[in-house]
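Sequence in, structure out. Go.
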Amino acid sequence: ARPGREPLARRGQAHYGGFNVRLSARANQKITTHTRTNAAPCEAWACLAGVPPQGQQPVSVVLLQSPANPDYPGDWIQYPNLNWLQPTFPSKGTAYRLSPDKPLVLRYRLVILSGEADDATLQNLWTEYAGTEK
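Output:
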């Protein structure tokens, strides 16, 4: 392949690939993913909550996908035993052709909160972020 023409794909075009967040082991770990495609824009976020090493209370790490990302929303690959959050890119079974004339821009928002984030908090974080990404 010529420089600048290499395709970008997930491992085997079906497995992991994209933005990865891997955290330390958490006591009482809970991973929640949310994708709602019948909303406008589609909603896509995940939250990993639990008590970190030497921690006294839960901490939530929230990952929001930008509606402006190509192939949005990416699906969620989960490896709970690895304390892992990952929205994939590109879509399963596809390759994204990189070009020097068209930059690839992927955006995410990472939010860290004290305590375990509830559904209302996650929805509010999403609504705020999606409003800034239009």
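Check: Strands lie at 7-9, 21-22, 27-36, 43-51, 59-65, 84-85, 95-97, 108-114. The chain has a mean pLDDT of 88.
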